[in-house]
Structures are given as C-alpha cells and as structure tokens.
Sequence to fold (492 residues):
Amino acid sequence: MLFNSLHFLLFFPVVVVVYYATPPSFRWIWLLGSSYYFYMSWHPAYIILIVFSTMVDYLAGLGMGREKEKRGRRKYLWGSLAVNLGLLFLFKYYDFFHESLRLAASWFHLSYSAPSLGLLLPVGISFYTFQTLSYTIDVYRGNREPEKHLGYFALYVSFFPQLVAGPIERSETLLPQLRASHSFDARRVSRGLLLMTWGFFKKVVIADRVAQVVNTVYGRPGDFSGWQLTLATILFSYQLYCDFSGYSDIAIGGANVFGISLMENFRRPFLARSIAEFWTRWHISLSTWLRDYVSVPLLRTLRGLKKIYRYVLAIMLTFSLSGLWHGANGTFVIWGMIQGVYIVLGHLTTPFRKKLRAKCGIADHVWYLSAVQIVFTYALVCVAGIFFRAQSVADAWLVLKNLGTGWQVLVQGEKAKELLLSMGMNEFGFIVTMASIVFMEVVQYGQEKRWFSSPWLEARPIWFRWTAYYLLVLWILLFGAWGGQNFIYFQF
Fold:
C-alpha cells in the first residue's frame, strides 16, 4: 500500500479511529493486524517472510535470555544471523552474485551452470531485516532483556508507518512505546498530520515532478548534453532527498498520531560541510546502524593493524556494505566505495587543511569558508549520485564523460527552452518545481531556527496556525504530480 494512494488515505483514518476506541491493553492486536494488512497489500504471500523472521528472532532472544554467558548466547545469535541474512541473500542478492560468478567463469573459460531464481524482491526486506538484527545483537551483547510478549515483538518488527522504508528503529526506544498507553492528544495529532502533509508535499510536488526530468535523461543519457545531464543530476539529488525524507516525514508523523515517536532520519543534509558530516544528516537511522553494528565492531576486530590501516579498512568495508545494502548492482557498490573514499580522504587531509587555513588566517567558521565547503560537499554528493541513479556502470561513465559538453546552448534562450521540453518538463512545470524547492528550503531553515515552535506562533489563534496547513494542501492538490509513483527506497 502506497502512502500516496487513495487506499492509504482511507486506511489510515480507520486505523486511527479504531485504535483510540480500543482499550489500551488490546491496541497492539489492532495495530499488528493493520500492519500485516498494510504489508499484504503488496504481495500477500510475503507476509510469511515477516512472520518467519519474527518467530526466529523472538525465539533467539528468549534462548539468549536463558544464557548467562556470551558463549552460550552465541549459537542463538549465529542462528538469527544465518536465517535473516540468508533470506536477504536469497531474495535480494542471489541473482546478482550468480550473474557475477557466471561472468567471472566466462572470463576464465570455466563451466558454470547454476540456475538463476528470478525471485520478486519483497518490499522493505532490507529495513525490517536490519531492525530485527539490531534486537538480537543487543540481546546478545546484554544491552537489553529479551522481549517475552510475542505480540509486542511482532508489532516492533512490522509497525506499518516505518515498516517498508524506515526509519530503522531500535528495540530499546520503540518497544516501550508500543507497550505504553497513549491517550488522544489533539495537539500531538495535529502536529503529526501536519508533518505527514509536509511529507506528501515533498513527495508529490517535488520528487514526483522532478522524476519526469530525471527519468527522461537517465533513461537515455547518450541523447543529452552536459548541461542537461548536470541539471538532471542536481534534480536527482532533490528527487532522492524529497522522496525519502518525504516518506520519513509521513512515517514519523503517522506514528505521532498514535503517540509514538520515531527517530529523526534527515537533518538538512545539503548544508553539510563535509561528507562525514553529510552522513550524520542523511539517512541517520541507517548510518548509525552501520556505525554501531558494523564499523565499531570492525575496528575492534582489526585491533592488530596500525590505527590508520584499521580506520581505512573499516570505513571502506562499511560503505561498500552500505552500497550493497541499497541494491544488488555494481552501480550501488561503486557508489558506496566512492563515499568511503571521500571520508577517508577527508580524514587524511584534515591536518593539512587546518594548517593551510591557519597559515592563511582563515577561521574555521567564517561564512565564506562554510559556503565553499557546503558547495564542494554538495558537488561530491552529486557526482557520487550519478552511480546511484544510473541504470548501469556504463551509463554512469557516459554521464561523467559528457558532463562538459553542450554548455554553449545556454546563451540561446529559445533553444534552451526547447531542450528543457525535451527533458520531460515545460517551462511552467520547471518554475513550479524550482519555487517548491526554494519554499521547502525556507521552511526547513525556519524549522531549524524554531520559528514554528516559538511562543509567539503558539499563542496565535488556531485559524492562523492552520492557514499554512490549508495552503500546503492546496499547493499539493494544484501542483502535485499524481499517479501513485513508488517511493524510491521501496526497491531496497
């Protein structure tokens, strides 16, 4: 079930009304049934995978809870890892590795005849797999007690607002909230609905409109010149951001309606001054998951190496895994490795850059230095994003090769308009899209500066505070690109 569908707009109010009408001790049953129905709307048979994964990790947690020593808990952890990662490999990565082995065998003139499976990728499998794994790892480490109530644990795995594309929650924060009794709070519900509306604005008005240009250009990259490829690449960064952060806003806002707080997943990432900072602002639930369950354990495992080698190896392995997590394709692996190289180079050059700034008498936080760092970081994000969006590695290299061509046409106004139309968007649509992006950035700046939570604003009459809400809904209705396009991260 898509958030941006009539089905969801009918489903969500019904779930909310029945939730608050149900006695608190039975609400988990309603939410669990609603979450399973939500997931089964895509492919009913794949609910079996969630139920199976839930039972495996629930039983693994109980088994580990009976063991006092880590050595005794280890077999349960390995069982959980084997089942969850095995399912993920089977459905998401088997055909990718099968094809890679076939190509490698052909290079060395070897016989290779294993069959491909061609399985349909279950929606959200990477997200709920990581969520369940964080639970079993935390129980193994002794960071939390195992959850003994199967119903609450099943709801933790499948809670529908964040089931398909996160945020990837931790059991120590989400499980207690699912157990708590939440009374109806009109102010909290209105904030949640407003955040959901903001997410719909990002998705329908910006991401889905921008997709028209991005899909056209990246579908035939050889047909377009450098300025068109550059524009499509910049627009893709906003498509990806608005699509994914829009989903997160809807998920967080929807959970707030039930009285449940989910973690922040984006924090104005395009204002990052370095790639390392970018990853503290972008897909925060994944980056912190990789830090806690991959990078830090790797650093401990590699203790025998020199500190710098240990750091480089841990970063490169972590970001390569991040790329592979995003998709079973060489483009995603290269994208992840590029991110790792960015971070490693940033770390290695930090002393040199500090000395250079000191020699030039430039303070660390002067506005012009920050501006240069933000622009440079954003450019690096866009370059890496070419591999993230391209349909193949060959297409990505074609885009990079052609970026410097055809810029002279920009001085020919009418010709530029004609070429813009060939990219899938007319002049009016382009103006609406750019205005929407600027509006979004201004609002996000205001949120960061707490304009919208100031005592002055809270003291205004309710009609004043809801004017922005009504205008936002009107903008969505007038300028939204309707058609129920999937969220990009559903494929992961």
